[in-house]
Amino acid sequence: MGTHHAACKFSATVMTADVAVLHMLRALCQHCESGKYKQIAWGGTGEGDWRKNGHEVTFRFTRQADRDAFLREAQRLLPGLWHLVKTNNLDPATPRR
Fold this sequence. Notes:
Blueprint: H1 3-7, E1 10-15, H2 19-32, H3 47-52, E2 56-61, H4 64-77, E3 83-88
Helix pairs in contact: 2-4
């Protein structure tokens, strides 16, 4: 596993029944992630992953503060359209290629 992927270890698994909300959450993840390779944070959260996992996806962040900002902003901007399933402080991203 690459060091950039290993650094993205603060995860938030969320559920939404709305594919449009999924895409907004992906964009919000990109906005809140402070790491150099922001796309790592939303890797594995595409529509296919979302459908396969029962409308749940896991976003990963390099800092706990980034994850907290994501959750706070998602609640502010998209209240009632998603919910938090779980968080984990040791759940590193894995390369997708």
